[in-house]
UniProtKB/TrEMBL annotation:
GO terms for molecular function: beta-glucosidase activity. Keywords: Glycosidase, Hydrolase. The active site is at E370 (nucleophile). The keyword Phosphoprotein does not apply. This is 6-phospho-beta-glucosidase. It comes from Actinomyces gaoshouyii. Belongs to the glycosyl hydrolase 1 family.
């Protein structure tokens, strides 16, 4: 009944409505209270530009939107919208400034105590990401990131430290943000200092193995500390369509899909799938697997699967097709779809497709932990003060959430939905402020100017009504 006015969106009681951010894109305070440098502090221009030796003044992430000092104000705004859950990340280098110390930084731990206090005050459930694209810089420089097996132990120590500290207050945890992105952005995702073009396949896939073992170890630690904790993996969700009906294009899609799905297959099923082992063999890669690694993967699988969803892509066996602009996951543009200002194809139905695909494949509860529209918003004077008339964002989110409701009607178990960048933040992919996702406008420009004042956009009121109605205010288009 997709597109039919007969369809009435329904969400289950207790559906977790909320929003999501990452420490490196909102906190700022990069050198405050004992925090060490992370890779983000020397990646001023986004995910593809060369890194610098040390932080530079043009890196907007150094101050970001100053959530570090304004978290109470921002969480109060989330509560005003009615958030049931707020996804945020802990900055690893705030807890272990270098990443390889034996003792944590108490001032860093105390900051997240205060954030959790504020969330509890407003009745908002926390969803914590342990590692969200912000590996401590020292681990990248001294160890080449996750290519070095010693990072497993460093990560285990970090995970145990924060889960012991917050595990009685935080029920939902994610181990690595978009872990499958390491294939495409090794420094951003895996803290791998070796430039991508010089990175040997053996080192890349060894790093993947180390991350997967670490993720399973964190799951074990969490369940040991508090059996009620729910741990999820987090991947980029992107449906891949054949550009043509040519079977070679369909096969190209299958192979591209496999590359993405392998990470969740391991997290959920606890073992490397055959197609992944074939990939390793064809690349001449033999993994160094320590005793106990495979048992760790098998015995400590995740409780749920979470993912980001922004776009779909097409694939083709033809070599001449061009890649979609700004798309970390490769693929080619779909000629039937419109695109955002940054070249990401807008495909609400793709969200229903991937929810069904993941549910059919794994049968685990699913959580949409990132989705939204990055756009250039214009601040105008409204009857109640400065605002943004972001009807385009409302339409985008409405159409995607209708498809979430369709998937739920299909029988898919969906835990919740946290919109990405619920307050404007520095973009990870472009390091701009002008690529805005939020319901809350933050007065800061790409050049760093601005008061950092917060203003409610039109979408703020829309999302507030949507949450209050548990999705009943969604508009289903006819036709």
């Amino acid at each position: 009944m997709t597109g039919s006015t007969m369809f009435t969106p329904r969400f289950p009681e207790g559906f977790l409505w909320g929003g999501a951010t990452a420490a490196n894109q909102v906190e700022g305070a990069y050198d405050v209270d004992g925090k060490g440098l992370s890779i983000q502090d020397v990646m001023p221009k986004g995910i593809v530009a060369p890194r610098t030796e040390r932080p530079t003044p043009d890196n907007l992430k150094l101050e970001a939107i100053d959530f570090y000092h304004r978290y109470a104000e921002d969480i109060a705004l989330f509560a005003e919208m009615g958030f049931k859950i707020y996804r945020f990340s802990i900055a690893w280098s705030r807890i272990f400034p270098l990443g390889d110390e034996t003792e944590p930084n108490e001032e860093g731990l105390a900051f997240y105590d205060r954030v959790l206090d504020e969330l509890e005050k407003h009745g908002i459930e926390p969803l914590v990401t342990l590692s969200h694209y912000e590996t401590p810089l020292h681990l990248a420089e001294a160890y080449d990131g996750w290519t070095d097996r010693r990072l497993i132990g460093f990560y285990e120590r970090y995970a145990r430290t924060v889960i012991e500290r917050y595990g009685h207050r935080v029920k939902y945890w994610l181990t690595f943000n978009e872990i499958n992105s390491v294939l495409h952005a090794p420094l951003l995702s895996g803290g791998i200092n070796t430039p991508k073009e010089r990175l040997a396949p053996k080192d890349l896939y060894q790093a993947i193995h180390h991350e997967l073992v670490a993720s399973a170890s964190a799951t074990r630690i969490a369940h040991e500390i508090n059996p009620d904790i729910k741990v999820g993996c987090m991947v980029i969700g992107v449906p891949i369509y054949p550009l043509t009906p040519d079977p070679r294009d369909v096969l190209a899609c299958l192979k591209a899909d496999h590359a993405n799905l392998a990470f969740s297959d391991v997290h959920v099923r606890g073992e490397y799938p055959g197609y992944f082992l074939r990939t390793l063999a064809e690349k001449g890669v033999e993994l160094d697997i320590a005793e106990g690694d495979l048992a760790t993967l098998k015995e400590h699988t995740v409780d749920f699967v979470s993912f980001s969803y922004y776009m779909s892509v097409c694939d083709t066996a033809a070599q001449a097709a061009g890649q979609g602009a700004g798309n970390i996951m490769g693929g080619v543009p779909n000629p039937t779809l419109a695109a955002s200002e940054w070249g990401w194809q807008i495909d609400p139905i793709g969200l229903r497709i991937i929810l069904n695909q993941f549910w059919d494949r794994w049968g685990k509860p699913l959580f949409v932990v990132e989705n939204g529209l990055g756009a250039k918003d214009e601040l105008i004077e409204g009857p109640d003060g400065p605002t943004v008339e972001d009807d385009y964002r409302i339409a985008y989110m409405n159409d995607h959430l209708v498809q979430v409701a369709e998937a739920i009607a299909d029988g898919v178990e969906v835990m919740g939905y946290t919109s990405w960048g619920c307050i404007d933040c520095v973009s990870a992919s472009t390091a701009q402020m002008s690529k805005r996702y939020g319901f809350i406008y933050v007065d800061r420009d790409d050049d760093g100017a601005g008061s950092l004042a917060r203003y409610r956009k039109k979408s703020f009121g829309w999302y507030k009504e949507l949450i209050a109605s548990n999705g009943a205010t969604l508009r289903v288009s006819g036709g």
